Structures are given as C-alpha cells and as structure tokens.
Amino acid sequence: MANPKCKYCELETVEISDQTLQDMRAMHPNIRSLAARPKNGWWRICAGCDQYALGREMTRGFPIRTSSGEISEVNQLLADLGLEDF
C-alpha cells in the first residue's frame, strides 16, 4: 500500500521510527514535512523536502521505511527514484 504524498512536493512519504526521529532531532535540523502524530510507532516524512534532516549530506543517512516495507536511507532512495539532484 502506498504512503500518502507530501503536501509540498507530491513525492510519496516514507516512515521513520521514534528512535530515528530522536537521533535526527539531536542534530537540530529544520524539519518541514513531519506528520503531526506517529501511526503505529512510525512517523511519516518526505524524503525530498526533508532530505537534509534525513542525512542527505552524510555518508549514510538515517534509516527510513518505504511503502513496500523496505528499510533504506535517503541517498539510496533518491537514487532509486532517479532524483539524485532533487
């Protein structure tokens, strides 16, 4: 089942765990698209709008879960979508 689309850019959102959100917030990023509440312990967020908060400039970004249930990271996801320059 597909995740909802981002209201800012129309990319399909991804999900992050509570722990990932805590790890991200420790770096004090500007987060634009985070859902107001988690669903079943997972927070929806846009990998395009919040790519830097998700670790775009890191060697390996924070773990994200795609709509297919695959665990990935932002750099790999954007490459898989052909959006390396997004």
Brief overview, please?
17% of the residues lie in helices and 16% in strands.
List the topology elements.
Blueprint: E1 14-17, H1 18-25, E2 42-45, E3 63-65, E4 71-73, H2 74-80
Antiparallel strand pairs: 1-2, 3-4
Give a structural overview:
The chain has 86 residues and is of the alpha+beta class. It is 17% helix and 16% strand. The chain is built from two helices and four strands, in the order βαβββα. It has helices at residues 18-25, 74-80, and strands at residues 14-17, 42-45, 63-65, 71-73. β3 (63-65) and β4 (71-73) form a beta hairpin. The protein is globular, with a radius of gyration of 12 Å.
Rounded to the nearest angstrom, the distance between the terminal CA atoms is 24 Å
Binned strand content: 15-25%
Which strand order spans the largest sheet, edge to edge or round the barrel?
A: 1-2
Give the overall shape, derived from the CA principal axes: globular
Q: Helical stretch count?
A: 2
Oligomer: single chain
Helix content percent band = 10-25%
Order of helices and strands: EHEEEH
Main sheet makeup? 2 strands, antiparallel
The radius of gyration computed from the alpha-carbon positions, rounded to a whole number of angstroms, is 12 Å
DSSP summary, beta strand count: 4
Structural class: alpha+beta
Low-confidence stretches: none
Which characteristics define this entry?
two-stranded antiparallel sheet, 17% helix, 16% strand, globular
